[in-house]
Design brief:
Elements (H helix, E strand, L loop, with lengths): L7 H4 L12 H4 L6 H11 L4 H9 L3 H23 L4 H5 L3 H15 L5 H23 L10 H10 L1 H22 L2 H13 L5 H37 L10 H6 L13 H20 L8 H25 L3 H7 L19 H18 L6
Helix pairs in contact: 3-5, 5-10, 7-8, 8-12, 9-10, 11-14, 12-14, 14-15
Amino acid sequence: MLDLRPTLSVALPAVKSLPDCADFSKTVQPFLPQLYDLPQKVFDNINNLEALQHVYLSTNPLVTALAFSLFVTPVVFIVSEINKNYSQVDRLWSILPVIYNSHYALWAHLAGLPTQRMDHVMAVTILWGARLTFNYWRKGGYTVGSEDYRWNIVKDYAGPVVMFIFNIVFISLAQNILLFAITSPTYVLLLCSRVTGNELTFYDSVFSKLIFVLVLMEFFADQQQWNFHGAKDAYKKTAKVPKEYGYTREQLDRGFNTSGLWAWSRHPNFAAEQGVWLALYQWSCSESETFVNWCFGAALSYLILFQASTWLTELLSAQKYPEYKIYRERVGRFLPKVATQSMDAPTADGKANDQQKQEPAKAVKATGTTKRK
């Protein structure tokens, strides 16, 4: 019978203080060589479940998570190149972070470490993943052949050769590493639990609740967007404003949602999404009594990715919707502006707009007909 609880010194650093838990040279660097031997160990024991459990517990949990992300990378690359569909990582976006944080919680349970903090992190991450997976599913993200419309723009701009390189470096590799890296603060929290024990701290209470609130914000933002597009589709089919949704004809003619949370932020779901992983990072800083730790790079990279993604989204929206320029002037991208204005308020050139609106009305009086939109 193999000992399933090996000496923790094999897999974890000997931390004596909370700041030690966030020291890269002590908690990460010494264990990176385990990555080189891990594939061979797994292969040698592939048919022995008990031996695989021993390998799992004798390997640093951060290294195991990193190894899994590197394993997923060539899989999504091959599938995306075969299908010429670059949304393979998109389909895993809501799943992989849940796997990583659940892995840290499972490892702590099997290794006999304090687990209350890990269970809290796992719980809020599962809620985050369930919401995002559901929203992606109902929009058709998991249907065969579905692909983020923005990838077509990138493909047309880059060309096949550049797109192939971009797929290797960024879509398949960098994004997979990022999804692993944004959960790395959980590893710091796991180490902190060895110092503080199984009692929950003030920071555990604050940040777990904060993440829960941010997930709720994402849920309401998603639902408001879903309702708007449902009303918009019904309006296009019948040319009548569906009363059950509560939108005006002007709002539906505008083409994009500017009500609810979207009246205060142009991307409230994106704002909350970034907030979730910033909160997890700050949780690790607070618990380890550090202002900044090595996980900062992952949090910053996540913010940069969303800046770039949102820039492209808004570029396309501005080309599609004439009033989007006004929306950008009045409403903040992620956070509300000090002087946020409703899209229902009159514009500075209101007179000119009124004249434009009166012209079709005069035409209707003259001809007695109008077009159905």
